[in-house]
Write a structure and sequence with these properties.
Blueprint (H helix, E strand, L loop, with lengths): L2 E9 L5 H10 L3 E4 H8 L5 H10 L12 H8 L3 H23 L3 E7 L3 H4 L7 E6 L2 H12 L3 H9 L4 H7 L2 E4 L4 H17 L1
Parallel strand pairs: 1-3, 1-4, 2-3, 4-5
C-alpha cells in the first residue's frame, strides 16, 4: 500500500509549469521531474539512446554518443508521426524510472511531466494539475527561453495537446496569463486545496 499522494503536473510549453513545480517544491512537496529523468536516460550507450538512434538515425547523436537534443527536437516536432514515435520510445523508460523513484515515498509527491497524458502516467496520479496560457503568450515565452524562431516555436506548440484538452481532462487548471507572482499565488492556493482533498 502506498503512503504518498501523487499529483501529476503538466501543461504546454511556455505555460509556466516549471514555476508552479518550483512553488510546490518550496512548499515542501517532493518533485520528480520527467525532464530530469530523460536527461539521465540520454546517457551514452543507454538502451533508450540506442533505440532513438536506430529510429531517427545516428545524425541525432553528438560525438560522445549522447543525443543532440536540439537536433532531435527539430526532427521530433517536424511531424505528428515523429512526435508520437519519440514518445513511444522514451515514455516506457521514463515511467519505469518514475516507479523506481516512488518506492518508499510518503506525503505529497509532484510528478512534473510535460507529456503526462501522452505517456499514460496520468492513470497512476491521484489528481492532475494542468497549467495553461494563451497561445501568443506561450509562443513568446518559448521563443525567449529556447532561442527559437517564430516558425520553430509554432511547430513545437502545434505538436502538443491543445489547451482545450488540458482544460477538459485535468482535475485542476491554473491559467497563467499574468506575471510570476500571480502564478505563485495561484499555485500556493491550489496546493493547499489539493493536499486537503
Amino acid at each position: 500500500m502506498k503512503n504518498y499522494k501523487l499529483i501529476g503536473l503538466t501543461g504546454q510549453s511556455g505555460a509556466g509549469k516549471s514555476t508552479v513545480a518550483q512553488t510546490f517544491l518550496d512548499l515542501g512537496a517532493e518533485v520528480i521531474s520527467a525532464d530530469e529523468i530523460v536527461s539521465k536516460l540520454y546517457s551514452e550507450n543507454s538502451p533508450c539512446v540506442k533505440t532513438i538512434s536506430s529510429c531517427f538515425g545516428s545524425d541525432v547523436l553528438k560525438n560522445d554518443g549522447t543525443p543532440d537534443r536540439k537536433k532531435l527536437a527539430e526532427l521530433a516536432f517536424s511531424s505528428a508521426e515523429n512526435t508520437a514515435l519519440l514518445g513511444k520510445i522514451v515514455h516506457p523508460f521514463v515511467t519505469a524510472q518514475l516507479f523506481e523513484r516512488l518506492r518508499g515515498k510518503s506525503g505529497t509527491v509532484i510528478y512534473d511531466a510535460p507529456q503526462l497524458f501522452e505517456s499514460g502516467a496520468d492513470v497512476i496520479c491521484d489528481d492532475v494539475i494542468a497549467v495553461v496560457a494563451n497561445e501568443d503568450i506561450r509562443k513568446k515565452r518559448v521563443m525567449q527561453r529556447d532561442c527559437l524562431t517564430e516558425a520553430q516555436a509554432e511547430s513545437r506548440l502545434k505538436a502538443q495537446l491543445s489547451e482545450d484538452f488540458f482544460r477538459v481532462t485535468a482535475d485542476y487548471v491554473i491559467e497563467n496569463n499574468g506575471d510570476r507572482n500571480e502564478l505563485r499565488d495561484m499555485a500556493k492556493y491550489l496546493f493547499d486545496r489539493v493536499k486537503q482533498r
